[in-house]
Automatic annotation (TrEMBL):
InterPro entries according to UniProt: Pantoate_hydroxy_MeTrfase (IPR003700), Pyrv/PenolPyrv_kinase-like_dom (IPR015813), Pyrv_kinase-like_dom_sf (IPR040442)
Ligand binding (3-methyl-2-oxobutanoate): D50, S51, D89, K119
Assembly and binders: Homodecamer; pentamer of dimers.
Role description: Catalyzes the reversible reaction in which hydroxymethyl group from 5,10-methylenetetrahydrofolate is transferred onto alpha-ketoisovalerate to form ketopantoate.
Bound cofactor: record note: Binds 1 Mg(2+) ion per subunit.
Active site (catalytic residues): E187 (proton acceptor)
A GO cellular-component term linked to this record: cytoplasm
Identification of the protein by name: 3-methyl-2-oxobutanoate hydroxymethyltransferase
Keyword terms of this UniProt record: Cytoplasm, Magnesium, Metal-binding, Pantothenate biosynthesis, Transferase
CDD domains the UniProt entry points to: KPHMT-like
Obligatory cofactor(s): Mg(2+)
GO biological process, one term: pantothenate biosynthetic process
Lineage, top ranks: Bacteria, Pseudomonadati, Pseudomonadota, Alphaproteobacteria, Rhodobacterales
Gene Ontology molecular function: 3-methyl-2-oxobutanoate hydroxymethyltransferase activity; magnesium ion binding
């Protein structure tokens, strides 16, 4: 009998790409080492999303997220991930200017965090940048539909792709896949459009509010655990109410301290 525990092989962007039409890809975000360890045990892909700005730093949108924040959280998450494919978001302003700007910042994310791929937002207009990165050794995940970094142009966090706009978003997803993206996130689209794009493009679609026809699903981990409760988008399923449990525990602690019930004898040290 071997004393070495069995280790699952590390999933790569190519492995995720090969899941097209197979078992759906399970993906969650993570921003810290302890959460990354939990997500890594169960999921295929861990995303260090720029949602970190809103979820952990209390920012009003993702627009204030910096490269330094993504490097810091990317490194923390990388320490907790052994099995899943690790993707780090490119923050607003770090890639839109030119393929060269994107290359510099994506290379920094790979080199300084140990992630295997980057994700960037935008459709056909980002295809040239995606091809530039992929041909130079940087796997890219696309993101179309509701792209939160464009919230000021989109006029809010609304469902995208209703009516004729659906064709444009389908074209955006196709352009990214043709440019070499290994997967494309579809955010907040009508279910029928999510299914149509998933049937049309050759790489896995990872849905968030884009219906069950996608090739995989992603959620913000703090949303599905009920920790981030400032608002709850319709597409989030709450698997736990950890925010409620934490508030109860913290109130009980404060009450114990004020009433001298904590610390008890078992929490102290003898001479
Ligand atoms: O920033 C993020 O967490 C994301 C996912 C929700 C897709 O982009």
């Amino acid at each position: 009998m071997s004393a070495t525990p069995e280790r699952k092989p590390r999933l790569t962007p190519s492995d995720i790409r090969a899941r097209k039409g197979g078992v759906p890809v399970a993906c969650l975000t993570a921003y810290t080492t302890p959460m990354a360890k939990l997500v890594d045990r169960a999921c295929d892909l861990v995303l260090v999303g720029d949602s970190v700005g809103m979820v952990l730093h209390g920012l009003p949108s993702t627009l204030g997220v910096t490269m330094e924040m993504m490097v810091l959280h990317g490194r923390a998450v990388a320490r907790g991930v052994d099995h899943a494919c690790l993707v780090v978001d490119m923050p607003f302003g770090s890639y839109e200017e030119s393929p060269q700007q994107a290359m510099r910042n994506a290379a920094r994310l790979l080199a300084e965090t140990g992630c295997q791929a980057v994700k960037l937002e935008g459709g056909r207009h980002m295809a040239e940048t995606v091809a530039f990165l992929v041909t130079r050794g940087i796997p890219v995940m696309g993101h179309v539909g509701l792209t939160p970094q464009a919230v000021n142009v989109l006029g809010g966090y609304k469902v995208q792709g209703r009516g004729a706009d659906g064709d444009r978003i389908a074209d955006d997803a196709a352009a990214l896949a043709e440019a070499g993206a290994f997967a494309v996130v579809l955010e907040k689209l009508p279910e029928a459009l999510g299914t149509r794009i998933s049937r049309q493009i050759a790489v896995p679609t990872i849905g968030i509010g884009a219906g069950a026809g996608c090739d995989g699903q992603v959620l913000v981990v703090d949303d599905m655990l009920g920790i981030f409760s400032d608002f709850k988008p319709k597409f989030v399923k709450r698997y736990e109410e950890q925010g409620v449990a934490a508030a109860r525990a913290i109130a009980a602690y404060a009450d114990d301290v004020r009433n001298r019930r904590f610390p008890a004898a078992e929490h102290g040290f003898s001479e």
